[in-house]
Design brief:
This protein is mainly α. It contains 15 helices and no strands. The protein has helices at 2-18, 43-60, 65-77, 81-94, 99-111, 115-128, 133-145, 149-161, 167-179, 183-196, 202-213, 217-230, 235-247, 251-264, 269-280. It has a domain at 1-129: Tetratricopeptide repeat domain (Serine Threonine Protein Phosphatase 5, Tetratricopeptide repeat). It is elongated and about 65 Å long. The model is unreliable at 15-34 and 38-45 (pLDDT under 50).
């Protein structure tokens, strides 16, 4: 046992040394879109600076599952999903109880559109480690997008009961509360997500919409403005800001914000419909 622990420690040190330019996190703990899973990382930087170093680690340790799991994470963050899938397959082949690799592979299956395989991998990760919060969050998000709302809620609830520090659990549970009109609970969850990830725009948008639903325009407007400051490329943020302007009778300002939302995403229906309304008025 001591020898195996020393081996893992040495491997971890080698991997850490290979990642001096960019920190590579496990996919199941990463975030992107609607508090989603992948952190925004420059693809070329991941490919050129990390992959070669991680490959060198693997060449020196071809039977080390941790090295494949970390390189798979780097591939995933760089959008190289098929290569990531191969690495996670290899990690699991080398260590059948590697629950983190199952959860990471599940995320890749999701991005490749293979939802049944994603669900199977999340289930396996949870079977191997019933306290692994990231797997519950990933599976919950899979359920939520499939319309299996109660199962999604249960998974987010479980992750929260496990004292997760992952903001996605609170954000996604907040989305469910919001969809059910339980805005006080939604606001509480979005606020918790913000406290865990203050630089993410998505929970500000979520909380702002619940504030707006309760006619708290001042707090809603403040949240939408914060979302825009954090990331001005999200069409939803501009459309939400425009909605407040529209409710306040500021049609020119509303049209400008709706127009920016349409520019960012020409297919975003709330922005197109809002722009048409204020122009018609």
């Amino acid at each position: 046992m001591i020898a195996r622990d020393d081996h893992r420690l040495n491997t971890a040190r080698r991997i850490a040394a290979a990642l001096t330019m960019v920190s590579v996190l496990a996919l199941a703990a990463c975030q992107t879109a609607p508090m989603g899973e992948f952190t925004e990382v420059d693809t070329a930087q991941v490919s050129e600076q990390n992959i070669s170093s991680l490959t060198a680690v693997i060449q020196r340790n071809p039977n080390d599952p941790e090295a494949y799991n970390v390189r798979g994470s780097a591939y995933g963050r760089g959008g190289r999903h098929k290569e990531a899938l191969r690495d996670f397959d290899r990690a699991i082949e080398l260590r059948a109880d590697y629950y983190q690799a199952y959860a990471n592979r599940a995320l890749i299956h999701r991005f490749l559109g293979d939802q049944p395989s994603a669900l199977a991998d999340y289930n396996r990760a949870i079977q191997l480690n019933a306290s692994y919060d990231a797997a519950y969050i990933g599976r919950g998000n899979l359920y939520r997008k499939a319309g299996r709302v109660q199962e999604a809620f249960n998974d987010f609830q479980t992750a929260i009961q496990l004292d997760t520090t992952d903001p996605r659990a609170y954000h996604n549970r907040g989305l469910i509360y919001q969809s059910q009109g339980q805005h006080a609970f939604a606001i509480e969850d979005f606020s918790k997500a913000i406290s865990l990830s203050p630089n993410s725009a998505e929970p500000y948008n979520g909380r702002g919409l619940s504030y707006l639903a309760t006619n708290d325009e001042d707090n809603a407007f403040a949240d939408f403005n914060t979302a825009i400051k954090l990331d001005g490329t999200i069409a939803e943020s501009w459309a939400n800001q425009a909605l407040v302007y529209e409710r306040q009778g500021e049609r020119q300002k509303a049209a400008k914000s709706y127009g920016e939302a349409v520019r960012l995403d020409p297919n975003y229906a709330p922005a197109k419909e809002g722009l048409a309304r204020v122009r018609a008025g």
